[in-house]
Each structure stands twice: as structure tokens, then as C-alpha cells.
Amino acid sequence: MATFKEFRNSVKPNWCPGCGDFSVQASIQRAAANVGLEPDDLAVISGIGCSGRISGYIKSYGFHGIHGRVLPIAQGVKMANRDLTVIASGGDGDGFAIGMGHTVHAIRRNIDVTYIVMDNQIYGLTKGQTSPRSAEGFKTKSTPEGSVESAIGIMELALTAGATFVAQSFSSDLKELTAIIQKGIEHKGFSLINVFSPCVTYNKVNTYDWFKEHLISLDTIEGYDSSNRMQAMQTLMEHDGLVKGIIYQNTQKPSYQELAHGYSQDALAHADLKMDEQKFNELLAEFM
Amino acid sequence: MIDQLSWKVGGQQGEGIDSTGEIFAMALNRLGYYLYSYRHFSSRIKGGHTNNKIRVSTKQTRSISDDLDILVAFDQETIDVNIHEMRDGGVVIGDAKFNPVVPEGSKVRLFSVPFTEIANELGTSLMKNMVAIGATSAVLDLPAEAYTEVVEEIFLRKGAKVVEKNMEAIRRGAVYFMEAAGGPLAGFQLNKADGQKRMFMIGNDAIALGFVAGGVRFMSAYPITPASEIMEYLIKKLPQFGGTVIQTEDEIAAATMAIGANYAGVRTVTSSAGPGLSLMMESIGLAGMTETPLVIVDTQRGGPSTGLPTKQEQSDLMAMIYGTHGEIPKVVMAPSTAEEAFYDAVEALNIAEEYQCPVILLTDLQLSLGKQSVEPLDFGKVEIRRGALDLNAELPEVEGGYFKRYEVTESGVSPRVIPGMKNGIHHVTGVEHDETGKPSEVAANRLKQMDKRLRKLKNLTFNTPVVKYTPNEEADLLLVGFNSTRGVIEEIIPRLEAEGLKVNHAHLRLIHPFPLKEMKELVDSAKKVAVIENNATGQLANILKMNLGSHEKIESILKYDGNPFLPSEVFNKCKELV
User: Fold this and answer.
1) Of the candidates B260, B267, B430, which has its C-beta nearest A273's C-beta?
2) Residues of B in Cβ contact (< 8 Å) with A275
3) For residues A133 and A92, is the Cβ–Cβ distance under 8 A?
4) Partners of B479 in the β-ladder
5) Of A206-215, A226-235, B15-24, B274-283, which range is least confident?
6) Where is the Pyruvate flavodoxin/ferredoxin oxidoreductase pyrimidine binding domain (chain B) (predicted)?
């Protein structure tokens, strides 16, 4: 069985020292080992942005796509080979701005993909513009007088879109994050894990200290029941989305693969492509 | 006795006009006639004039005709809109319900037949189209029995009584017409057909069938006219092979999901039309850069923007050849008949895997939606070639643990592995990368990888890149086209030859990479070249000029009003040119 070290490669990340993404990378590697994966069985699909480089830093099959399209690529991979574990990963701009259309539909489609978002509330790679997760009033290069747009409440949105696994974590909490990713991988269906991953270079507001001060662990809320969607929504709204832990999980709903009519139990990637002549003739006869 | 005739049925959209044409055509198809139809319809569900024009012939024909022999009208608008197409002595049969009239001085013969009234007498006005079919058959002197099989197939699930009622409606329509006309009309009886059983299908059916036979097991697509039938066929059929289709949230998702699935080893396609292809452009670049096989069907329709969504046009050509930023290897194929569409769909899958690049299978609305008789398809010609992918390969452990997925080779094609394979781990990225897929901006590496990618298609082998008719070593006129204009060109060649002209014909089945050798010979040996295409700027003519020069002899014959060429239009323009 592979250890987390076997999910490491020799590539040195081009992230800034202190970037939250390092811990997210380590958590993915640990979670993959913990659930008993081999590097060959894992495909990490990533978007564009600082965090999008992550597929190149993990020893596994990796696909670094185009901006905002990490989820359709990841879903395509999973549909092609249901035996693979597919992790999709990217930033908040990638997933909640340019890629938001796909995020909402991936959530409601419920294909078994674990989507890990490194949420830093800013565009880092393009050097400091506002993101859909930036708070109102947040000053950036593109919002010098402060953003006048509302931040997306992504966890709330996921709940209304029909998500079956919604979780949030903080890159500093390596242990908790690893456990959540592990649960996300094991969840049968689409899992959305939003990770607050501070940008030490361009976001001077939402810092490590800021998150430590503002984030509330769901463990500390007495009687919190992650299978209760109503309570999940209410708790998110009460705390302006600043909670961490598994917010909601629906273990009853089958994944898309289970529901798709006729979809093979065996990986399509290994299907025999040759049609027999009798079947071919039957298909032709339908047009006569 | 005649060898071909042209028939049209028209009325309000949503009134069963399509099924009237369909039943008429299916019955004739079973008798062994060749059929070719073109539907005029609008971008709405109900209402608005619609018609279905069907050519019936004892020989293969792939063009609509100049004039119309028989018009079946369910409303006066149908007569008003289509009367100009009628030949002198043609027959208009209108429902007595609307008191059909033809313009004064018109040389057609008008028959008013109570379609609706007879249908009502039989129990439901829904059967008015069967009465109309009966009246039509009386003109052709076809027995009602010709319809038995088709009517049974359609209505048997509703019970034998419904079948009998519909057959009765056909007989009553025929009897009424015979009495009104005093017997079958002279000059409308077709020579007997060869009785061969042929398929009757639209181009999109042929493509979809090609995909299923060619090993497609997954499709991601977004609905659009005139491409949706491909997706709908695969939705019906793929589950029989363990596969499935996802209707995505947009065309960007359709293309990128297909890239993900192809990367993971499944033959996956998507299909769309102009607006969808515009959205897919960045994804096409990703497939090119990551060397991921990807087959996209572009069923061209009227552009730009939403344009003429239900009308014929061929204006995506340049966008398909050059679309996406940067430079990638890409293949653009253009079948011109349903048979070619089938074989090319299979071949597109093979080329995409062999050369690890995007392949555009280009059609146009007339080919995609025009229903036509199709010669038997040859199962023996369906082959699956996956190029440098060996799913059962036992890969050796590699130093550094990364497989050289982008190994620089002489052909440019690198060994391909898919996720899940042991010792095949590599990285894939749209960023410029080294042999293992690791991002790299090193200039020397950039050149190596860029050259490698672009080198791949230098060795492209393509069976019949140009469909040729070349009886003349030196031609007065070379006719050039792509996609559905083949039919109209083939139709006018005998007419031009009858005028004493030496005519050659080249129909491009491979558009890109441009078949330079074949086209150069043909253009060089012609005095004049007429490029016939459904767009306003002469895109194919420009491609020819760009590749071959010869500007002085290349002329364009263009039509971009949304309708297919009529043979006489092309014929007259050709005569003007020489």
C-alpha cells in the first residue's frame, strides 16, 4: 500500500513561501494514502491560477486544463473510468467566477468527483484583483475604492443546488483537512470542499490570523447534525459562512454513475469497442 | 412514364406536415425508389409555414429539383408561398376546407379534395394527412397497398382498427381524386423502381450510426439545431453498449468533458453548430496542445451569431480550419453524402486517436437534416485503429517515475497511456511542457514540442481526400465544392456536357490539411474553376487561392439566402463563367 510519500514528486511548487496551498497539497497526498490509493489509481485535475498548478505537484495522473473548466474535465475522466479516484482542484476565481456555471451543474449532477477549492478571496497569479469571494469593500487592484459586489456564499449555494457533500476547512488545520478530504473521496457522489487557503502576498485582510479569529468549528456547535440540510443552511447564515467541518452530507442519494441508465459497472475505458455484425445489421434495419 | 418527380407537402408547423411527407417517402423507399428530401422549417414549435420537399427518382439523386410536379397544401399560404416552383401542368391538391385557389393565369391543375371532411367522417380530423396521401397516390397511380406495411408499423401499437381506419383514409382520398380527375393523370407515373431495400436516413443519423459502430461509448453535448439528432441517437443507443450521454450545461462543458473522457481512454464525441463551436474554441486548443483525441461535429447553419438557425449555409469553414488561438494540428473532414458521413464518422475517430489531435467533422444543414436513400453500409469497412495507445501494455518502471507521454519522435506522435495504467503516470497541461508533461518555458524545449506537434499531420494518410469526376484531361470548367453541394453539382454536369462543355468536378472530403497535390493537378488542368458554396465571402475559393494561387481563373458561385442551391441557379452561373 502506498504511503503519502509515494504521492510526492520532485517538482518544486512555484507558490510563494507561506502560501496556504502547500498544506492543501500535503493533505491531498495524506488523504490519498489513508484511503489506500496507489498513485496509478488517482487522477488530479486542476484549473488555472496559482492553485491550478497542484496537479503537477502530486505524483499521480494529472491534468492541468483551462481556466474554469476543471469540473467538466474531471467529470469526463470519471465517466470514462469509474475505477479511478478523481480529485478536481483549483482556486475560487477558477471555480466560482469563470467556472461557476460548471460548479453548480457538477453539484446537481452528483458524479463521484472530489472538488477541492483553494479559496483565498483574491486573484493571485494575475497579481491581485478581486474575486467572487472577496468581501464587500475589499480593496484590490481592480477595486481600488473597495468592491461593491456581494461575495458569493458558496456553501449556501451548494446546498440549494442539491449538493450531497459540502465541507469547509482551513489550510492550517492539516489534520482536519486531511480527514475531510478522505471523507470526500469516500463519499459516493460529488463532494465540494472549500478550503480557506490564505494568499500571503496579495490578501492582507483575510490572513491566517484573521481566519483563526473568525472561523467557527462545527464541532463546537452542540447538537450539530450534518445530515440536516435545514440546520446546515441556518448555521451557515448565522455565521456568514465562516464555519469549518463537514457542513452537510447526504449518504442516501446514489451518485450519477449509479443512476445513469445502461451505464456499465465496468470502466468504459476498458470496454470492447468492436460491434458484432448482427448488431450492426439490426441498427441498419431500423432505418429501412 | 417518368424517372423522377418532385413532390411537396406544406402547411402550418405542428400540423403533421412532417409525418405526411415521411409516410409518403417511406412507402416509396420500400418500393426501391431513391429519395431525397429537404425540410423548410422555422425556429418555433407550432405555427408558421413549413414544408417538406421530396424528390423521388429511379436513380440516386442528392439534390432538390428546380421545379415541383405535385404540391399538397393544407392551407392557402402553402399555395401562395410555393406556387412559383410549380412546373406548367403540375398538380396542386388542396384541402377543400380552405377553398384553395391558384393565381389567375397559372398553368397548374388545381384539385380540391376534402381531406378534413373525409377524415372527420372516418372519426378524426387527424387522418386528413392520410387522405392527402391517398389523393397523391392516385395521381401517381400507386395502389393504396404500397402503404400497408408502413401504416402498420406506425399504428399497429394503437390497434388493428386504427390501422384499418388509416388505410381506409388513404383509399378514400384516392377514390375521391380519381373521380374528380376522371382517372390517373398522364405524365405522373413513375417507371418501376429496382425494388432494392435501402435505408432512408438523415446525415445526422449516418454520423451517429458511424459513432456507435466506431466505438464511441460516451458523449457530452448540448442541444442545438441542426445537430441534436446525433446526441438523441446516442442517448438511445449507447446504453445498449454500456455507454451513456451527458447533456451538459453548455458547449464549453461539452467539449472539455469530452477531452477529459478521451484523455481517460474512451472514444468520446461532441456535436454542435456554429454558436456552440464558437464556445468550444479554447477547448479545441487544449486538445491540440495536450494531444488529446477529440472528435467534434459541426453541423453548419446560417450565421453569424444566431443567424438563420434552421437554414442552410456553409460559412464556418475558415473558423473550423483556423479557430482557436495559437497553432495546433487539426483535421477538418467534410463528407458530402450520408454514406460518406457514416464512414467519415468512423474514420474521424481513428484519425483523432492515431494523430492525437482534434478532428472536426464538418457537415451542413442540408446534409445533416436532409433525408435521403442510403446504399447499404459495409460492415467490413468499419475498423477501429487506436494508434499509439496499447491498453494492455506492460510498461517498464521509468526513472523519475514519469512516463514520457510527449516524447519527441520522428513522426511527432508519442506513445499514449491512460490513467490507471501502471508506470504510465505523466502530467498533462495546456501550458507548454516537456516530454513528461512538466511545464517548461525553455526556448529549445518549446521549439521541439511545437515542431513535434505540428509534424504529426505531415504523414496524414487519408483515403480519398477529394471525390473526383474527371473525364477530361483538360477541362473548360472545374467545379469545386464541399458537403451537400455535391448533389446539385452532379445534377448539372450532364446538362453542361450537353452544351458541349468539358467539365471536371472536385469535391473536397478533406478540407484541412489541404489536399494540395490532388487539387493542384485539377486546377492546373482547368481553364476556369467555379467554387460553389453557401456563404457570402467565398471561403473555399479563398482557401484554394491561398494554397494554389491561380487567382485569375478561380471564380465563386455563392448563395447565402438560407436556401440550398437549385440546379438551374448553378447551371446558369456556370454558363455565364465560360
Assistant:
1) B267
2) 212-213, 215, 241, 382
3) yes
4) B505, B530
5) B15-24
6) 212-450
Whether residues A81 and B418 touch (CB distance < 8 A) is answered with: yes
What does pTM read for this prediction? 0.97
d(CA B355, CA B344): 16
Q: Rounded CA gap, B313 and B307, in Å? A: 10
The half-sphere exposure of A167 on its side-chain side, counting CA atoms within 13 A, is 25
The C-alpha cell at A86 is 478523481
User: B204 and chain A: CB distance < 8 Å anywhere?
Assistant: no
Cα of B459 vs its chain's centroid, Å: 28
Residue A50 has what pLDDT?
96
pLDDT > 90? residue B40: no
Distance from CA of B429 to the nearest CA of A (A): 4
Rounded to 10 degrees, what is the CA torsion of B304, B305, B306, B310? 20
Please determine, for residue A206, whether its predicted confidence score (pLDDT) is greater than 90: yes
Helix (H) or strand (E) holding B197: none
Please identify which residue in the block is written with the cell numbers 487557503: A197
pLDDT exceeds 90 at position B16: no
Name the nearest CA neighbour of B316 among B327, B307, B303.
Answer: B303
Question: Do residue A271 and residue B249 have CB atoms under 8 angstroms apart?
Answer: no
Residue B367: DSSP 8-state: H
Q: Decide if A39 and B425 are in contact by the 8 Å CB cutoff.
A: yes
Continuous segment of H or E residues that includes residue B341:
helix B338-355
Mutate to test the interface with A, among B350, B428, B432 (most CBs of A within 10 A): B428
Question: Are A76 and B212 an interchain contact pair (Cβ–Cβ within 8 Å)?
Answer: no
Q: Three-class SS of residue B6?
A: strand
Query: pLDDT tens digit string along B496-519?
Result: 999 999 999 999 999 999 999 999
Q: Which residue has the cell 446504453?
A: B239
B74 neighbors B81 (Cβ within 8 angstroms): no
Cβ–Cβ pairs < 8 A, chains A and B = 206
Map A117-182 to HEC letters. EEECCEECCCCCEECCCCCCCCCCCCCCCCCCCCCCCHHHHHHHCCCCEEEEEECCCHHHHHHHHH
Spatial neighbors of A79 by CB under 8 A, at least 6 apart, are: A111, A257, A268, B218, B244, B246, B257, B260, B261, B266
Nearest residue to B537 (alpha-carbon basis) of B554, B552, B558, B519: B558
> What pLDDT digit, counting tens, does each position of B410-426 carry?
999 999 999 999 999 99
A62 with A56: CB under 8 angstroms?
yes
ipTM: 0.98
Query: Using CA atoms, how far apart are residues A143 and A27, in angstroms rounded to an integer?
Result: 33
CB A184 within 8 A of CB A167: yes
- Distance from the A87 Cα atom to the nearest Cα atom in chain B, whole angstroms: 13
Question: What value does the mean pLDDT of chain B take?
Answer: 96
Interhelix angle B148-155/B17-30, rounded to 10 degrees, is 130
Element (H, E) at B142: none
Q: Residue B29 is placed in which grid cell?
A: 423507399
Nearest partner of A177 among A163, A197, A158, A157, judged by Cα = A197
Alpha-carbon distance B65 to B86, whole Å? 11
Domains (ranges, CATH) in chain A?
4-261 (3.40.50.970)
Q: Which amino acid is at B46?
A: K
Distance CA B380, CA A285 (A): 17
Q: List all residues 6 or more positions away from B104 whose beta carbon is below 8 Å from its beta carbon.
A: none
Domains along the sequence of chain B with CATH = 4-181 (3.40.920.10), 200-375 (3.40.50.970), 392-462 (no CATH), 466-577 (3.40.50.920)
Q: Please name the helix (run of DSSP H) or strand (run of DSSP E) that holds residue B149, with its range, or none.
A: helix B148-155
The DSSP element (H or E) to which B109 belongs, if any, is strand B109-113
Matching residue, cell 497526498: A29
